[in-house]
Amino acid sequence: MEKVISLCKRRGLIFQSSEIYGGLSNTWDYGPFGVELKNNLKRAWWKSSVYERYDCFGMDSAILMHPKVWEASGHVKNFFDLKSDCLSCRKRFKTENLGDKTKCPECSGKLTESRPFNLMFKTHQGPVEDTENELFLRPETAQGMFVNFANILDSRHPKLPFGLAQIGKSFRNEITPGNFTFRTREFEQMEIEYFVNPSAAQEAYEEWVKTRYQWYIGLGISKDNLRLRVHGKEELAHYALACTDIEYKFPFGWSELEGIANRSDFDLKQHGEHSGKDLRYFDDAAKERFYPYIIEPSAGADRALLAFLVDAYCEEKVKDGTRTVLKLNKELAPVKAAVFPLLKNRPEIVELAKKIAKELKRSIVATYDDTGAIGKLYRRQDEVGTLYCVTVDVQSLEDKQVTVRDRDTMQQERVSLDRLKEYIIDKLGDNTLSI
Ligand code: GAP
Predict the structure, then answer these.
(1) Mean pLDDT across 12-21
(2) β-bridge mates for residue 244, sequence order
(3) Which of 41, 143, 187, 296 to mutate to test the pocket of ligand 1 (most atoms within 8 A of CB)?
(4) CA 408, CA 10: separation in Å to the nearest integer?
(5) Percentage of residues of the chain with pLDDT beyond 70
(6) Any ligand 1 atom below 6 A from CB of 295
(7) Residue nearest to atom 6 of ligand 1 (CA)
């Protein structure tokens, strides 16, 4: 983990939030390469969850919602962790992490009794800060899709089964955040709410577990580092009939990347009852009205990104030492091509290299760099997973060819300028959505 965290800072993938003020703990900012990687990841999810399916629609609901949503959803009553506070050092601990300890694990101080602590962040709407204007920052994106169920039926007229997909920020006042971006208080979720006839729920649940597992493998996660874990009855959330986690073998142990739950008809029933609106689905063929079940694949964008980073991190022996490479899949790699002038004191070479970069940028994510010697530039690009490095040299001015180096094989090839773009796009293959 330390190596990955240090690479993230060194190469502008992820920075600590508000670092110049000493940092806000457990909050992270994505830098120039990090945001490209995250966008690629979210785009890959959107592509497979919306564009490549005929039965799922995208949406983007607001973070702030009517406070009754959280009563209906059960979050006001059930969304809490048990915590104990140290009376001496004032540190707060999750009761489940304390085991049989009766004293503070940090300073041996006296601990308070274990008390429930609601994980939702509170805020106020408008200028008056009283309880009537109290709102919550959403702790999951899911509810924004449930409360729009009737709008979708009325505007898109879908037949069951169909799904809604959205990506967005969620907030939880976690007692014990940590492990870099793994558990934070502000994070991004990628959630699908798939509405099905209750009789088809089990089959859809099993299908989604397979589909989502395959998504990670398809984007390059090693099979050895991914596993499924079925929840025991005692650990199921208050709304779930069944749940399977997709877990990744992080350096700190096997941990959840995504949960796929069968949420039964809990959500639509609750929102139907609390809002007074009929949220049942009318089945034309059977001439009956019922609450669909919901199958929910719920993933974290930041967690997935961390897993892809850890999985892609690699140190290789090369003839002049060791190189660090992020062997990210072509679709995820933040930068597809980097262009360098071999000699930066030759204006014609610099000019040509900049012209090539500008031309490539019209079609793919490309970058120009002349801030070091060529070996150093290669190493830097390897560290962020750039797929192809294009070098312009003296010879290029005459033969109109450049050297293209492949990230993984480090093989170099002379490619003529007039087919450079086609050459790279060809190598990228089917990954055109995120180039
Ligand atoms: N709507 C269901 C739901 O929110 P969850 O298991 O609480 O279920 C789903 O969250 C996913 O969201 C998790 O598998 C994880 O990837 C991500 N997630 C949850 N809490 C997180 C946190 N504090 N930091 C980063 N990611 C988190």
Answers:
(1) 96
(2) 230, 260
(3) 187
(4) 21
(5) 99
(6) no
(7) 259
